[in-house]
Write a structure and sequence with these properties.
Layout (H helix, E strand, L loop, with lengths): L1 E6 L3 H4 L19 H9 L1 E6 L15 E6 L6 H8 L4 E6 L2 E8 H8 L8 E4 L12 H6 L1 H13 L12 E3 L5 E3 L4 E2 L3 E3 L5 E3 L4 E2 L4 E3 L2 E3 L4 E2 L4 E3 L2 E3 L4 E2 L2 E3 L2 E2 L4 E2 L4 E3 L2 E2 L4 E2 L4 E2 L10 E4 L4 E4 L7 E3 L4 E2 L4 E2 L3 E3 L4 E2 L8 E2 L3 E4 L2 E4 L2 H13 L7 H13 L5 H7 L1
Parallel strand pairs: 1-2, 1-3, 4-6, 7-10, 8-11, 9-12, 10-13, 11-14, 12-15, 13-16, 14-17, 15-18, 16-19, 17-20, 18-21, 19-22, 20-23, 23-28, 24-29, 25-30, 28-31, 29-32, 31-33, 32-34
Antiparallel strand pairs: 3-5, 4-5, 26-27, 34-35
Length: 406
Amino acid sequence: MNNVILFDDGSRDHLLPLTYVRPVCELRVGILKIRQKWERWLNAKSSFITQDYLTAKYPIRVEKNNYVINGSVLPSDRLCRLVEQLDTNEALMQNGELIAAHLNDKQFEHLMKEEEIEELQGFELEDDTPFLKINRLHDLFHFNDQAIREDFELLTKDRTSQRLSSSNRLIGSADDLFIEEGATVECAVLNTTTGPIYIGKDALVMEGALIRGPFAMNEKAIVKMGAKVYGATTLGRSCKLGGEINNSILMDCSSKGHEGYLGNSVLGQWCNLGADTNNSNLKNNYAEVKLWDYALGRFAPTGLQFCGLIMGDHSKCGINTMFNTGTVVGVAANIFGAGYPRNFIPSFAWGGTNGYTTHKLTAMMETAERVMERRQRVLEEEDRGILRTVFEQTAGFRSWEKVLLQ
C-alpha cells in the first residue's frame, strides 16, 4: 500500500472558514472527500502536512517512500498514472506549483526543513492533463457536478446496486443509480437523465422526495418527505435534508431539515439551518457575485452569477433566517432575528441585523457537546483545542469586541 502525504498549499487561506478546522484535503466535493479520492485511486493510506494547531488531529506519517501530493487537487486517471510513474527524486509541477512528488524519508526531511532537495527533478504537466483543483470556496459547488460523476464511476465500477423498490418511480437509466446495502428508498421519484444518483449505506429517502441527478448522499444521510433536490448536490454522512436544494454541499452531520431554499452553497460540519431559512443565490440585477475572501481581506469577484451561502462548522441560524447572495458565515456563529444579516459574519458571532455579541467559547462547546451526543459522537480534546485556536485567530474580525475595549 502506498503512503500518501497531502499538503495544504496557498489555497488554504482562500478556503477559510471551511479550512479553519480541517486540512484542505478533508473537504468533500463530489461523493468523497479529496483525501478519500486519493486513497482509492492510489491504493494508499494518507496523512497530512497542515497548520500546526491541526496536527494533533491530522498528523504526518512518514515512511521510506512517500507520495507528497497537493491536497487541493482532485485525482484523475491520467494524473494518477503520472504520479505512480514518478521515481523517488521526481516531481510533477504546473506553472511552477508543486502537484505531486515521490520522496524518500531523507528527502522528505529536507522538504519539511524547507531545504533544497538535491537531484529532485521536476516535470511540467501538459496543459491538457485533466484534473480539478479547489482554489476558492465557490469551486466546491461549481465543480460538484463533474466530481459526483467521477466519484460515481470510481465507487460503482464492477459492483451491483441494491434493487430499487417498486414503490419508486425511476426516470432514466438504472445504470446511473446505485443504492448501497442497508439504504431505504420508498415512494420517491428519481431522475438520472441529468446525472447519476448515489444512495449511501444505511441512508434513507422518505416518501414523496423528488431527486434529480447528479446527486449523492453518504452513509446514514436522510432526505425527508417531499424534499425537492436538484443537482449537483451532495449530502455528507448523517446529514438531514428537507425543503428545496440546488447545487449545494453539506459536510457531515449538518442539517437543513425543513422547508426553505438552499442554492449554490456549502455548509461545514455540525451546521443547522432553522425552519424556513432561505438564501439568495442570484442578485436582483443579475450581476456577478462577490464573496468574502479571508486571504485577501475583502470581497472578491467569483466570476459566477449564481453563488449562495458558505457556512463554517458548528454555525447555526434561527427560523425564517434570510441570507443574502454571496454570504460567508464563519465558525461557530449563531444567527437569528428579522431582516438580512450582513454578507460576511465573523466566527463566534451571536446575533443578527440588530447587532452582534460574542458567542462565548465555553457556551459554544457546551452546545456542541449536546448536538454531537444526539448522534453518538463526542467533542474530542483535539477538537476543543482547534476551536480554541480558531476563537483566538478570528478575534480581529469581531469588530464589536474592539468597541467594548475602548
